[in-house]
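re: ur question from earlier - yeah i can do the single chain one, its not a big deal. heres the input i used so u can compare w yours
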Amino acid sequence: MFALSRETWKCRALVDALVRRHVATRYRGSLFGFLWSFLNPLCLMAVYTLVFSYYMRFNGGEHYHLMVFAGLLPWIWTSSALSEGTASLVSSGHLITKSLFPAHILPFVSVLSSMAHFLFALPMLALFMLLAGVPVSASWLLLPVVILLHACILHGMVLALSALNVFFRDVQHLVSNLLTFVFFLCPIVYPASAVPERYRVLLEANPFAVLTVAYQQVLVEGRLPAPGLWAVLSVTAVLSLAVGTAVHARLRERFAEAL
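and the output i got, formated as C-alpha cells:
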C-alpha cells in the first residue's frame, strides 16, 4: 500500500495534468460548462424534494431540501468516481499497452476529478443554507477529514474494481446496477431516523450510508459525528486501500496482455 502511494506521489505532476484535463473536458462543448457541477445536484434535489415532500407527503423533517442536497453531493462524487474509475483502465488501454504508463494513477484520477466537481458545488450548499437561515457552523472545519476518508475509500475500491474489470468486463455493468441499489440504502431522500430499528444495523454497516450521515451532520446539522461513526469510516478506508492495493498489485503485470 505504501509502495503504491510512493509511486503515485512520484507521478503527482502527471496526476495533476490528467485531473485538470479531465475536469476541463467533461463539459467541453456544452452551453453551461462548469455550471453543470451545480445544476446536476440542484435538479436532483428539486425532483426529490417535489416527490417526497409534496407528491408522497413524506415528512423529512426541518430543512429537508438541505439534507437531501448535502447527501446528494457526496453521492454524485461516489457514483461518478466508481463508474468512471472502474472503466478507467479499459478505456485508456492504449496508454497501458504502448508505453510504461503508470496504470495505477488512472483510477486515482477518476476519484480526484469527481471530487473536484463535488468541491465546486459546495458553495451552492452554503448559499442555500444562508438563504434558509441555517448558519454555516464551525463543524465545517471537519469537512476535510470526511473528504479525506471518503477519497481513501473510493480510491481503494476503484483500484480493485478497475483491475478486475480488465479481465471481467461485466464488473463495470455490475457496478452501474449496484449503485442504484446502494443509493436507496443511503439516508439521502429519507432521514436515518426513519429506518426501523431492526434494520439499523444494515445502515451502520454500509460505509456510504455512514458517509452520508457524516456529511449531513457536519454540513447542515452543525454537530460533530459520534466516535463510532469516525471509527467505521477510518477502518473502512484502511481496509479499502489495503484490499484495493493488493488486488491491483497482483493483477497489473497482466494488464497489457489482457488489453
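The radius of gyration is 19 Å. not sure if urs matches, ping me
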